[in-house]
Design brief:
Subcellular location: Membrane
Keywords: Membrane, Transmembrane, Transmembrane helix
Membrane topology: Multi-pass membrane protein
InterPro entries: Na/Glc_symporter_sf, Na/solute_symporter
Oligomer: single chain
Largest sheet: none
Helix content: over 70%
Structural class: mainly alpha
Radius of gyration: 22 Å
Family: Belongs to the sodium:solute symporter (SSF) (TC 2.A.21) family.
Mean pLDDT: 84
């Protein structure tokens, strides 16, 4: 069981006023967005009317939740600079691929979710399987966000854990139930800037405390990680590094399967791009998000390295998840402290809101409407969506304490991704580029890959296979799930009947839907709205970032 955060902040009236102003603003956005909700499309996809810069910031903010802030700092303490792989190879390439290659299929097909795309490409059974696994994953991840938020609020402000969980859940529940995805997205844009306002001063003061970048590097060399804590690729050919990871596991497991599986098929993220006003804006959404993603390690991983050298007992008496709260306690003056606490609260709510808005959409459209109660009036599904929001938050409260078994919540999260995202990506990418793949190959491949991921993890926990660390086990588990899914899909395809070509138009590469109208807007042809140009720019920046730390 992960230890409780033994940190208490000296917050004063000014800090509480700042926190209160933030909560009032969040709820006000929810009430304002409610006036625009007249249909299920408005509730679930913000009426498909938002500009790319709004959806792009919401895209990155939805990912910048509790798991990102506390988890990546914890990774920085435990694994050092190798944590940067999560950003530069584990996020940016997949985000660019989503924008350039996959978003046109999602957006132009007018689907409301990833499972709905799978129904059209394969069959209803594949849709239902993916909808169920996605819903379970979102509830579990929402639980991580809630648990982390409640733990921090309890420790920093002195609120009892139960009160922290309930208050946090009620706030998120209120603004999503009121305003649907519009409310979540506009709040995520606000939360993005609040998070930066809270964490940038923390990083700057932390660097001053350790003597700048050179002072930090020297002290990391003297820490338990040693010189290895300052490098990303060093000793990845033999696994003799803090993560005990081989470069094959990093490149294939994290950089390809886990990363592409998460960013291209995780509906909680894709949903933000689907709310954009046209195809070009939808393609730009993840690409715009890739730029801040390159620099976010400065406020997540870097504070983890600072905490590594300022405090001791990590992994023994000191929980890795304590890194950010400890720095807040010892470095921030009042006022700035209030902004930082608000930033933490904002990050937790942004992450949970993404999980819950994804859950309510998939449950309503892909389980309830598609399989349980088809053919009802639109207002019926709007009501079900709001009820699903309440249920999702309730289930998130229930699963919050599963995360308590992990002193590093990022390890838990990566394990979940290997279960749910890796096999889905295999099914998706094969079905997108191989028109011969049959409907039942989609179902059985996805099921086999998911079972393989669970089997790999259970074998590791039972001591049957030694992957070194839990994190490395998730890399290999993802790769195994991907391989098994592909193999089973190919075998089933060879013995089952493919779909007629007409049913695949607009759903696979090489078969365009001739009936689609061009939805380009004035100005889309300008260079600064070019998905290709901006996408290549993000990839170049990520490579250059690696050049700074090898």
């Amino acid at each position: 069981m992960g230890s409780r955060l033994a940190v208490r902040l000296d917050v004063n009236l000014l800090d509480y006023v700042l926190i209160a102003i933030y909560f009032v603003t969040v709820l006000a956005i929810g009430f304002a967005a409610r006036k625009r909700i007249s249909s299920s499309l408005d509730f679930f996809l913000a009426g498909r009317g938002l500009p790319a810069w709004i959806t792009g910031l919401a895209f990155v903010s939805a990912n910048l939740g509790a798991i990102e802030i506390l988890g990546m700092a914890a990774q920085g303490v435990q694994y050092g600079a190798m944590t940067l792989h999560y950003y530069w190879i584990g996020a940016v390439p997949a985000m660019v691929f989503l924008g350039l290659v996959m978003m046109p299929f999602y957006y132009r097909s007018k689907v409301r979710s990833v499972p709905e795309f799978l129904r059209r490409r394969f069959n209803p059974a594949t849709q239902l399987l993916n909808a169920i696994t996605f819903a379970v994953a979102q509830v579990l991840i929402a639980g991580v966000n809630l648990y982390a938020l409640a733990l921090v609020v309890e420790a920093l402000l002195g609120w009892p854990l139960v009160v922290s969980v309930v208050v946090s859940a009620v706030i998120v529940l209120a603004y999503i139930t009121l305003g649907g995805l519009s409310s979540a997205i506009y709040n995520e844009v606000l939360q993005f800037f609040v998070i930066l306002a809270g964490l940038i001063p923390l990083t700057v003061l932390g660097l001053i405390e350790v003597g700048g970048f050179s002072g930090l590097a020297e002290r990391v060399r003297q820490s338990t990680l040693g010189e290895a804590g300052l490098h990303t690729w060093a000793d990845t050919f033999n696994g003799d590094n803090p993560m005990q990871a081989h470069w094959i596991g990093i490149v294939f497991g994290l950089g390809f399967v886990l990363s592409f599986g998460y960013w291209t098929t995780n509906f909680a993220e894709v949903q933000r791009a689907l709310s954009a006003r046209n195809t070009n804006a939808a393609r730009l959404t993840p690409i715009i998000a890739a730029y801040p993603k390159i620099f976010i390690p400065l406020i997540t991983v870097l504070p983890g390295l600072i905490a590594l050298v300022l405090y001791s007992g990590w992994g023994q008496g000191q929980d890795y998840n304590n890194a950010i709260p400890l720095l807040m306690r010892d470095l921030l003056p009042n006022g700035v402290l209030g902004v930082a606490v608000t930033g933490l609260l904002a990050s937790f709510m942004a992450g949970m809101a993404a999980n819950i808005s994804g859950f309510n959409t998939v449950f309503t459209n892909d389980i309830w409407q598609a399989h349980l109660r088809p053919g009802r009036e639109d207002r019926h599904y709007l009501l079900v969506g709001r009820v699903a929001t309440v249920v999702g938050v309730g289930l998130g409260v229930g699963t919050a304490f599963i995360a308590a078994g992990y002193s590093n919540i990022m390890n838990y999260l990566q394990t979940l991704f290997s279960f749910f995202n890796a096999p889905l990506f295999a099914t998706f990418i094969l079905g997108l580029f191989w028109r011969r793949m049959t409907p039942w190959a989609g179902f059985w491949g996805l099921l086999a890959g998911t079972v393989a991921a669970f089997a790999s993890y259970i074998s590791y926990k039972a001591g049957l296979v030694d992957f070194g660390t839990e994190l490395n086990a998730s890399f290999w588990g993802a790769g195994i799930a991907f391989g098994v899914d592909i193999a089973v899909s190919v075998v089933i395809t060879l013995v089952t009947t493919e779909k007629p070509e007409e049913e695949l138009r607009g759903l696979v590469y090489g078969l365009a839907d001739v009936n689609l109208e061009d939805d380009a807007l004035a100005g889309d042809a300008r260079w600064y709205r070019s998905p290709l140009l901006l996408g290549v720019g993000a990839l170049v920046l990520a490579v250059l970032a690696y050049g700074v730390i090898v």
